[in-house]
């Protein structure tokens, strides 16, 4: 296996390499689907994990990101990002096979051994990550970043949909008819995930790497350099605040549905598939808008939408009827898929875009290390908050009493998880203030994007009108707060302002 980089790559080598990267993405997605999300939560609950241990499982992927310093040292020492990515990926995926072997040998009855091996899985994956990101920055043409990674994400999500549904139906069948083999089923899933991951690493090794240089100097001084970049520092502030709010609540959605609502794994995976389909149908649109406008613009659209998703979770479970809650969950998962597709794509691309070419691994590692502190802390805090709010509750009802009808309408019922979701929504809303300060090359003014999207109504694209409204609602709400607290600073504006009406056929302008 030859893993040395090349001085220059031909156009054909780049095209072939991009196909291998997609192949590795599909294998990695299969590995993540088999061992992540609802399946990991169900496996942990089967082993008796408590709320804090669930939070620890969610925190592990980012808790080990401080070891990305090793990745920087290895790249500087050997200047071979492909070798580091491939070898560390192979080392990372082996522990999954070990986890799968434990139940078959009768060696696991609690969650602690699983957490132990998962630590090494995430550790080596953390070391592989920065070198992979820096490698991709040089391999993928910058003009295609949005569309390429959108296509890669779409293919991965399609595989996730098919595999998740098959696994959920199989697990529920085993659980109902052969409960004694439920743990064995998860063991087979982990072994299969490890093998898929190894295959993916072998496929990735075939993608070429253009040679790069890294500035010499002390590692800690190198990591301090991105922190001196004012614009990159603003991105770190937003990313850290957002990821804390996101991870405070998101890891506990599946726990809430399984433990509180009693929803079966098949329903949960079905809802997850709805979310994936929503992502698949919209990620290409976000990729196009990302290349045409900016990643910051996409974040300004998708982040407020995800805040509405968090607020929506506060109303799940208010009514006892299963299908009422299911209908609300359907809407929440669809909106979540649309929002997270844009958020994940934009956060990845904007980090790649703001990083300088020769020091991209330093910038990206600094970003990952800083945000990992907040990302890993959030689910741990979330688990503790869930325990704290277990014995606390807020209920607000409207009650009507008459001669023939007595009706109680539940408005708000906050308890345990709902408190957590509401706190996450408030913190996510506050984090959007940091996004405004980030400057991105080629950024199109928000008002221009709103004008383009809203004018598309005349072409029957009403969904873009909704998107245009989502861009501005957060700033409008903050404006209300500011005018209320400091009326002397915000005098009334004249209402007879001139408004420019866009042309009848106003297609989005091409970015020069």
TrEMBL record:
It comes from the Bacteria. The lineage of its organism: Bacteria, Pseudomonadati, Bacteroidota, Chitinophagia, Chitinophagales. This is MFS transporter. SUPFAM superfamilies: MFS general substrate transporter (SSF103473). Coiled coil: none annotated. InterPro entries: MFS, MFS_trans_sf, Sugar_transport-like. Residues 492-512 are annotated as: Disordered. GO terms for molecular function: transmembrane transporter activity. It comes from Pseudobacter ginsenosidimutans. Keywords: Membrane, Transmembrane, Transmembrane helix. The chain crosses the membrane at residues 21-48, 54-75, 87-108, 114-135, 156-174, 186-204, 235-253, 265-286, 298-320, 326-347, 368-386, 417-436.
